[in-house]
Structure to design on (92 residues):
């Protein structure tokens, strides 16, 4: 299981998630990253739901970082003089 650093302990020892699930009037649920959710305010069922979402957010963050890293690598490669010369001569 991938563990994400989205929860942290405050000085008073209260551990919190770095997001809150908000249920809208039509039944849809929205993740609000600007709010924090303390562990103590969650029921066991909500704790399972928050843990699953925390893992999914961690996976999404990892994919986003990987994509950004690859984009940056491609950008640097395309600016390389050696790469441009190889393209010019049909080697790349």
């Amino acid at each position: 299981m991938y563990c994400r650093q989205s929860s942290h302990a405050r000085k008073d020892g209260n551990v919190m998630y770095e997001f809150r699930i908000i249920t809208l009037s039509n039944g849809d649920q929205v993740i609000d990253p600007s709010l924090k959710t303390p562990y103590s305010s969650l029921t066991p069922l909500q704790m399972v739901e928050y843990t699953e979402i925390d893992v999914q957010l961690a996976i999404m963050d990892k994919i986003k970082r990987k994509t950004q890293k690859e984009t940056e690598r491609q950008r640097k490669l395309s600016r390389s003089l050696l790469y441009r010369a190889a393209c010019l001569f049909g080697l790349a």
Observations:
- The two ends are 39 Å apart (CA to CA).
- The beta strands are 8-9, 15-17, 20-23, 29-32, 37-38.
- The CA atoms of residues 23 and 48 lie 16 Å apart.
- DSSP finds two helices and five strands in the chain.
